[in-house]
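thought: fold this chain, then report.
action: predict
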Amino acid sequence: MEINIKLPAVKLGTIEADAVRVAPADQALAQLMDEVCERKRREFTLESLAESKPVRDVRAMFREWGMDPSKYRPSSEALLRRVVQGKGLYRVSNVVDVGNLGSIETGWPFGCYDRSRIQQPIEFRHGVAGESYEGIGKQTWHLQGRPLLADSQGPFGSPISDSTRSMITESAKDILIVLYVPAGAIDASLEVAIKRIIERLTLFAGASVTRSGISRLG
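observation:
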């Protein structure tokens, strides 16, 4: 899926997977999650995490969008802070867990979306007055001036908190994963992250067909 980017300082990695089987994480995925969480917990303290390059780069990206990352925390940093505090990753489903795992490995926000619930064209832009959606696990998320993904029906995703409209449920078959990546990140590192996600979706969720790409401003 092509995404028309209207905000600076970002590029988006996209992965589309078809015929996925959404289910609780199996033992192998759960073990991988535990191993990566333990590695990150040993690698960082909350103080050193804040000074790490991925976290600083994502925070700088947020500031370019006019967002205060200490007030509206990037989803990747929120996950990493949870892991460093010894709380581990949430267990949601194999697909969402694969996305969250990739997010803490790279330090970039990821979004996982049910493609049957979104329609092209898709834009990444600031929210305008009156726009809002029901956030996952949250109350109404007001979007004016905040970075968001929107389709023909309106906003559905964000590198802070996604909507219930496009969330992954067990009925999802075709999915879209979006990586919100600082524009200065090396393409090769983004390609490695995309390849790893595709391998895990195939292994842990039975994805049969995958497509990927990188979208840039302009």
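thought: worth noting. The helical segments are 27-43, 46-50, 53-64, 75-84, 94-106, 187-205.
final: tokens above.
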